[in-house]
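Prompt: May I have another protein with tokenized structure?
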Amino acid sequence: MNKNHRLLSLDVLRGITVAGMILVNNGYGESFSTLQHSEWNGMTPCDLVFPFFLFIMGISTYLSLRKFNFQLSAAVARKVFRRTVLIFLIGLAIHWVDMAIEGNFFPFSTIRIFAVLQRIALCYCAASFFALTVPHRYTIPAVVLLLVIYTIILLTGNGYACDETNILCRVDRALFGEAHLYRKSPIDPEGLLGTIPSIAHTLIGFYCGKRMLETADVTKKVNAFLLTGATLIILGYLLQYGLPLNKRIWSPSYVLMTCGLAASLQGLLMHLIDIRGHRCWTMPFQVFGVNPLFLYVLSELLAIVFGHMGISDMLYNGIHSSVAAPKWASLCYALTFVAICFLAGWPLFRKRIYIKI
């Protein structure tokens, strides 16, 4: 089996994840609860998409840095820093565009500093330099250390309080100020301290990528993913009795559970696509999977433009005139938005143009 076939399942999982991120971010009005983040403790399908992306990014980081034999050099360091800064700045730029359209071209006192792309950038940077500077046999010990440190922070800092007494809230407000944070709850779901378990999350993906490349037989790869996934799911399930699942604080149980589900799904996709050869359904997800960050950024910018120009209202009202139930109309709107992003990515996929961010 050639390399492209072995990696097709990873592209498909990445595509499923990015399409899911766009779907859950672009409901209109009243949405189904499964397409909304859990209010606090607990987990919905919506809470899986971002952690799945970090898990996949960990695998991709292993594949990318393997080309350099994991040797740190000035050229590789510049490459990592450049990509980190670019992704972080694009995240800031998205929020700037939202404010600039309203006439605030210099929102330096209120722009949100941390968000999804910014966390992706920090996790990519940390995982990359870990891979380049630390022997890989220490990957799992590093994951355990990060999660233990974060657990101590949560338990000693009122980390499960959904108010201003939470240490995550207190640290973010002390360092960045309330004006630069998420405004829909006291806890910024992409805040600074929550980056600690997110890095552990990415390193678990890195570990799975290492195991995948070190195993020649595809069936053994599948078994490794499924075994790793089952182990993490069980550990996450047991840990939630002391540290409940919580996406907003990125709890340790949430890290283990979502990584376990992602690894299990990757194993299942490898079995279906790489062993059984069921590839006829994969094309739409390949479109999203080969240009993931570009299409995600495009979706965020389109959502801003559609909202400010009244296109969202017009599109939703047109759908709602045919689909009476608000929740179903919202779902149809979100699916339409995903389809628009697919149409933007289709020519790139056909021409094998891969926009790397």
